[in-house]
Amino acid sequence: MMNKVAVILWKDLLTEIRSKEMVFSMLVFSLMVAVIFNFSFPPGSDFIQDAAPGILWMTFIFASLLGMNRTFVYEVDKGCMQGLMLAPIDRIVIYISKLLVNFIFITLVELIALPLFGIFFKLDVLTSPGQLALVMLVSTLGFTIIGTLFSAIAVNTKTREVMLPILHFPVSIPVIICAVQATTAIFQEQAWSVVWGWTKIVIFFDVIFFIVAFWTFEFILEE
Fold it and tell me: Comparing C-alpha atoms, which of 214, 14, 202, 179 is closest to residue 99?
């Protein structure tokens, strides 16, 4: 199974490396938001320190939606989806490979954008790098699990660019809230128990929705 996942994953990685559409659009969007919000607050304002974690995660999730919106677009537009469905593989293999490629590119954009946010908003991103890495890992995985599943639903609609955010946001609200709260606790150097309390909720959410995706993706793909 993992060999089949690796084959599809490698195909998607090569496609993105050649086109650079997903990473470039997400990265440009993230940088634009960072610059705009940097000039939206007075220099030295205390409010920006409180608002920075929320701005950070909303930027990441909006940028990720730009990328995840194209998860199945290439297959549908080029007629490759039928080929994948006729291949002798389980449907969940397609989902896992798409999930991994989305997670890789979103994480790459976050790693590039996070230091820039730290510079613009004067955030010490190296205060607790291990805690911050864990929060970003599980939170990014959370809205990637949701986005990959919903992008399979939205790709066959006439308004797929709009449909994915409409489906995604209501479901991903718990992940966003927990990610913002955990990140705020890290930047304010609160106790690990506070950070872990929010992180546990995201991990639970990730597990639940991965199980839901495992059960439903085959039916979504068939429809």
Answer: 214
Residue 80 and residue 11 in contact, taking contact as beta carbons nearer than 8 Å: no
pLDDT class of 138 with cuts at 50, 70, 90? very high
pLDDT at 22: 79
**Burial status of residue 193 (CB atoms within 10 A of its CB: 0-12, 13-18, 19 or more):** exposed
Q: Number of H helices and number of E strands within the chain? A: 9, 0
The pLDDT value given to residue 203: 95
Tell me the whole-structure pTM to 2 decimals.
Answer: 0.88
Residue 204 has phi, psi (to 5 degrees) of -60, -45
Alpha-carbon distances, residue 117 vs 37, 56, 191, 203 (angstroms): 10, 7, 23, 25
Residues listed for the chain: 223
Distance CA(64)–CA(20), nearest Å, equals: 14
Nearest to 4 by CA among 68, 104, 90, 86: 90
Angle between helix 21-38 and 2-19 (nearest 10): 60
As a whole number, mean pLDDT of residues 104-128 equals 86
Of 71, 69, 81, the closest CA to residue 166 belongs to 69
Q: What is the end-to-end Cα distance of the chain in Å, rounded?
A: 24
